[in-house]
Design brief:
With 249 residues, this protein is an alpha/beta fold. It has 2 domains: 2-96 and 205-243, 3-Layer(aba) Sandwich (D-Maltodextrin-Binding Protein, domain 2); 101-199, D-Maltodextrin-Binding Protein, domain 2, CATH 3.40.190.10. It is built from 8 helices and 10 strands. It has a 5-stranded mixed β-sheet. Helix 1 packs antiparallel against helix 7.
């Protein structure tokens, strides 16, 4: 406890009393980040509002653009980056969440995911700028030249557009986080039309990745780590997740 208190005091001293709220980017990834519903902005944003002295300002951006803007110092950072996506950015020790990536097909399919090789011959819907782990990233990069096999979306509403393509038969498989897909299907009344055909190995930690151009970046990162650690120790994530009807694993 003494060490935690000293860490928090050192962060506050380094930043002073006039530190501006962080300007953080990310895409529409509800229930994590929900820019379309300001009254419920996403449980990661609500958690950051508790973890930091000032709630962050959120900018809804396509994911690849958000990463690039953070690297260039045009925003202070991004919310929900994997370590593999954070080259040129700063991440701390404390994840903000864990992603549980599944592979989805139409309900009438009996295909099962058994590793990247099982995707050969299928049309797969992905999102520009996302990392899917070492093995699937390598499969994607080997096949990027085949635009029928690897269909990469960018811009806004990528989940909705990828699932529409799946239901229309334009792709065979969509790779996406389970919580996001579950919420979307439930809200759209599509639960019985899409099925999970497997998942990627083990949930992956996601971070708030800060720009190296941010003033007092190291102190901001230490402050963020301390706030996230305190949320975890206080079990403060569970009630936030329940507010968004998210299963607490």
């Amino acid at each position: 406890m003494l060490r935690s208190t000293l860490t928090a005091l050192c962060c506050a001293a380094a930043l002073g009393a006039t530190a501006e709220p962080l300007r953080l980017g990310g895409d529409d990834w509800c229930p994590y980040l929900c820019p379309q519903t300001p009254e419920q902005p996403g449980y990661l944003l609500e958690g950051l509002g508790q973890a930091l002295p000032e709630p962050p300002q959120f900018e809804n951006l396509p994911w690849s653009r958000a990463l690039q803007m953070a690297r260039e110092g045009l925003i202070d950072g991004v919310i929900g980056a994997y370590a593999e996506e954070s080259q040129g950015l700063l991440i701390g020790r404390e994840p903000i969440a864990w992603a549980d990536m599944h592979l989805y097909t139409r309900a009438d399919s009996d295909w099962r995911y058994r590793g990247p090789a099982s995707l050969d011959g299928l049309a797969v819907g992905l999102v520009q700028g996302y990392s899917y782990g070492e093995q699937l990233d390598a499969w994607r990069d080997r096949n990027l030249h085949d635009h029928e096999r690897v269909q990469v979306l960018s811009g806004e509403r990528v989940l909705e557009r990828n699932l529409q393509k799946l239901l229309l038969g334009r792709v065979d498989v969509v790779v996406e986080d389970r919580r996001i897909v579950d919420r979307y299907l439930r809200r759209q009344g599509l639960d019985g039309q899409v099925r999970s055909a497997g998942e990627l190995p083990s949930p992956r930690p996601m971070y708030v990745a800060l720009s190296p151009h941010l003033k007092d970046a190291d102190a901001r990162l230490a402050q963020l780590d301390e706030g996230l650690r305190q949320l975890r120790e206080d079990d403060a994530w569970a009630p936030l997740m329940r507010e968004y009807l998210v299963t607490v694993d």
